[in-house]
Amino acid sequence: MSTATAAPTPSLTLDCRRVRPERLAATVLDTFDSLLPGERLRVVCESAPAAILASLQRERRGAFEWSPAREGPARWEVDIERRDAAPSALRTVREAMTWDHERLSALEEAAFAARHDHDYGEAARRYAVFAHGQRRHVDVEEQLLLPEFERRSGMSGDYGPTVVMRAEHRAIVSLLAEIEKQIGDPEAPVELARAELRQILREHDVKEEQVVYPALDHLLDAGESDAMVTQAQAWARG
Hints:
By secondary structure, the chain is α+β, with helices and mostly antiparallel strands. It has helices spanning 21-33, 50-59, 93-116, 120-153, 161-182, 190-219, 222-234; strands spanning 12-15, 40-45, 64-71, 76-82. It has a four-stranded mixed sheet with strand order 1-2-4-3.
């Protein structure tokens, strides 16, 4: 699990319901352009903000991170972070997914910091955002990255790194559900499950960052890696 010192906090919030539909894409772009590298915009909408993502990918491709915090059914929340990169900069799978590891680690730490401060409602809220992001991260790998790695490398079946990754994903998802149910309960022995999950994530993330992601980038050309990151941004949890 990557080391992070602070939870990512949006610098600005934009409520889509207060912007005329025909002005929404331009308003998001203008607000995004006001951000400094590392700052985040939280966009809140009543429906999936697919048009906003499409506009950013068309006009600011390579310059932003897209992190859904909530996906429906009646409310969507997405954090858009400005990268320290020029628009049209090509992305790699390793860089994008490692960034997400660090973001998720910060969210998890912030949830338990709130629990340590006896703010159990805030701990549960923050952990729900972390859990959503972690499940989405797993979905992107299971349904997009790992199948492409298997197709390109020929490594599939009962052997190879993807078998290990998928087994660890199952353990991660199971522990997420357990902790998410307990973190808001001051009497729950949640630290035991947390320690187990953090150990799995620590080892899992290293294997991905040092083996799977670089190998996938090697199997793809630069444009294909960039396109894979674009697909990952657009991934919606079913």
